[in-house]
# Entry
Amino acid sequence: MASLEEIRENRLHKLELLKKANMDPFPAKVPRTFCLGDAKKNFQQYEGDKKEVSLVGRIMAIRGQGAILFVVLYDGKGRMQAVFKKDIIEENKFKLFTDTVDIGDFISVTGTFFTTERGEESILVTDWTISTKTLLPLPEKWHGIQDIDERYRKRYLDILMNPELKELFIKKAKFWDIIRNFMKDNGFLEVETPSLEVTTGGAEATPFKTHHNDYDLDVYLRISIGELWQKRLMAAGFPKTFEIGRVYRNEGSSPDHLQEFTNMEFYWSFANYRDGMNLVREMYIRIAKEVFGKTEFTTRGHTFDLQSEWKEIDYRDEIKKQIGIDIDKASEKEMEKELDKLKIKYEGNNRERLVDTLWKYCRKNISGPAFLINHPVLVAPLAKRVDGTDTVQMFQPIIAGSEMGRGYSELNDPIDQRKRFEEQKKLIAGGDTEAMMEDLEFVEMLEHGMPPTCGFGTGERLFAFLADKPVRELQMFPLMRPKGE
# Structure
């Protein structure tokens, strides 16, 4: 078997043969009547009229030899067979094709539509020209790229050789279209908020830090879709807003964790978390029906139906039920002991992290659909309390053992908000890199007054679970280390 370097040298030789025949191997434009998808739609009309057409595509297969060749073309919109016959094409052009063209090359063919004896819609070629001469081969047809690192690094080949993967990305685009349309149908205005922030807010995660040269100022890439900014818009008099955008979190890599991904957040004035729960359930059912054509799914070992009843699960009760710990009464040492007993890894020993880790162990056993409610205030520094208790008006959709979003009645009490920021500040001082940064300008906005508001966010994780794929697999171009490092 020839090496890649030998293949490349051979193709460079073919490239020179094309040049000697006065055929540009990389022309800016070639004859094209319509794409291959439209060729199928117009096939009968053009076949009957015997009109000549020109089609362009990448060669995915060549079979036959001698006086007749069958070439499969693909252009991203469709596939069509091109038939080369030596007695129809000019002899020199036929020979040039056999001498210089390889699978993977892009060509333009001109000819007439006809149906083969086997009933396959094809184009009978009378002339051709190169569109792009390739110097390296495509992966082997039946096996594609086997190495996972290589698949992600050469995603363009992975998608080309894997039609199912391409369809997933098309479905993912539809997922976001449905969400956008749903929000607009419900009267929400799409907005844009800053990606660079002086302080990050709206989530608990370690941010990426960079430097603004002109201001000589350290700034952070956002970790939420403008939560504190969209709340300012509530104070500004916008009743309903939403944003779809990229989020950046400097955390570990895994099949279900990314450093960069797309999320959506909405904010709804004069609504509370109960209103949000109803809207989110309606949105998830619409996504399921219009993107996947069903509401019942099996993923990650769980089976659930989004159109069934969404049970409400109490945060504290569920931990006590599954593990036997009362998180209101147990000490940090008792929590650590239980986590060690369950062989659960945890970072940090502050109460918030320990409670959150206990919950994450419990959630894996819940198939859903369900709403997790009655969170303790220490895990939700931006949510409104329930009647002055240490419980907040928060909800999270639980599907297949994981959280598929987060929403709450937003805290609009500036005094309470300042106190919670102070608690988060202490966590940061204690080494917690995921604690929320203090934003006193946001507190000032609350002092001017923000109406009662419900906020909610969700994103790519939901699509990945419904598609039953790791979220990393559904990134077109996942972050990769440079080769050799």
Notes: The CA atoms of residues 125 and 289 lie 44 Å apart.
